[in-house]
Sequence to fold (176 residues):
Amino acid sequence: MRRLVYLASLSLVLMLVLAPVAGAQETVTVSMEDNFFDQANITVPAGTTVTWVQNGDNPHTTTSYDGLWDSGMIAGGSGGSFSYTFEEPGTYEYYCIPHEDLGMVGTVTVTEDAATDDGTTDDGAAVDQYAEETVVEADDEAPLPATGGPGLLLTAALAALISGLIGISLVRRRIS
Fold:
């Protein structure tokens, strides 16, 4: 019985430690199509990583007007991506260097809130977990990067459940 209490306590502590981390980082994906950004104008909470993914045939960039980020040229048809994490609230305007004159521009509005009212961007896209600033060149037929998957909270709850079941089975074996 003592071992069961120990395992249950350990599982509870792990859940309490890992749960706050589960919502700490989020990501939103913006697609770079031929001469436009799909979901060009988005609103995200501070701490969110925005990933721009090259899905067009033409080369594109994502470049902030204020010099905070510049992906450099990402080859057309490459499936490459660039990510930037927005830590400070504000409105950040960006553009594609070769296609700005064609209207390939957008804005990222960063709020102080931990989440938007409905957990989506202005265009209705779900906000997912992800992180880090990177530029990635991918194969010609590479799919969009996986930005979802089970959250850390779900993983921690599953680990706690499994630990509890193992603890119960160990206690039952000792009693038998």
